[in-house]
Amino acid sequence: MHLKISLLAAVASVLCAGAAHAQTAGLDLAKSKACMACHQVEAKRVGPPLKSVAERYAGQGDPMVDYLAGKIRGGGRGAWGAVPMPAQTQVTPEDARQLSEWILSLAPAKQ
Fold first, then answer.
1. Rounded to an integer, what distance in angstroms lies between the CA atom of residue 28 and that of residue 99?
2. Best CA proximity match to 100, nearest among 76, 75, 64, 74
3. How confident is the model at residue 1, as a pLDDT?
4. Are 51 and 41 in contact (CB under 8 A)?
């Protein structure tokens, strides 16, 4: 019994470490692509907080990852107010997808 508890604790620790690394990697990528010039994780800047984006689009799976990646690269207008988001064509499709996955991971867990 004690071995099972120790094993479960070890697995949980590894999973938490992986999630923390993914969060750091996502934020680092967002900073390197200048996303943070207009967005913050929790507060409005020029664009909406990334957590608000995550909450609006949470739980919609892979199609939403592709949709957000398209919005990152192609820009958008009207979904979050009057200020348009310019196209970020310097972001590769792969990086846009990774950013989208990270943004969606910011949504609070459903209980």
1. 10
2. 64
3. 57
4. yes
